[in-house]
Specification:
The chain is mostly helical. It is built from nine helices and two strands; from the N terminus they run αααααααααββ. It is 40% helix and 4% strand. A hairpin with a 2-residue loop joins β1 and β2. GO terms for molecular function: ubiquitin binding.
């Protein structure tokens, strides 16, 4: 009844969902002291999703190892449970295809109410960096130092060699004879 108040009025008075919700509660213990934790989780899931039957909710809960949040995420995304052929259906004459699924309006209303919001991502504002006029021009690959071309490959850092006065020219030694293998 709690979720039916938050849903749009066109979906709040749906008799098929109420019928399944009543059917969902049949055959279970009525005393709240004898309920286990899993039955309380199933009750909360029955309140959130009245159009889905109890057995399917319990199968989803078992598939997520008892995690209610993961079960709600699975149900909202529409993941289907593969049923074992050995397990019998409750109603063999009624197919599961005719069961109503959540409409997009119901899904949005449920997500607005019970969806988790990541606080860190909701506080940051992502804006693209605006390129400046200098960056938009093609960067020159020629580097200058003291009005002389130093490098044409575009290296940012170059090695500056100091010139000493009265420095003799470098002498390259020649081998006295041709090198032969030992």
């Amino acid at each position: 009844d709690l979720i039916l108040q938050t849903l749009p009025s066109s979906h709040a008075s749906r008799p098929s969902g109420e019928h399944l919700h009543r059917r969902c509660r049949q055959g279970r213990k009525s005393s709240s002291s004898s309920r286990s934790v899993s039955e309380k989780k199933l009750d909360s899931l029955c309140q959130l999703f009245p159009q889905i039957c109890h057995d399917e909710l319990s199968a989803h809960l078992r598939a997520t190892a008892g995690d209610v949040n993961a079960t709600v995420d699975r149900l909202l995304t529409g993941d289907l449970i593969t049923r074992d052929p050995s397990s019998p259906l409750l109603d063999d004459n009624r197919s599961n295809v005719n069961l109503p699924w959540m409409t997009p309006e119901e899904r949005l209303a449920t997500m607005e109410r019970y969806g988790l919001v990541d606080a860190s991502s909701s506080q940051t504002i992502h804006r693209p960096r605006i390129p400046t006029a200098v960056e938009s021009q093609q960067e020159s690959r020629i580097r200058y130092l003291n009005n002389q071309v130093v490098d044409t490959t575009g290296k940012r850092y170059i090695e500056i060699k100091q010139e000493y006065p009265n420095m003799p020219k470098p002498v390259y030694l020649k081998a006295g004879r041709k090198y032969r293998f030992h």
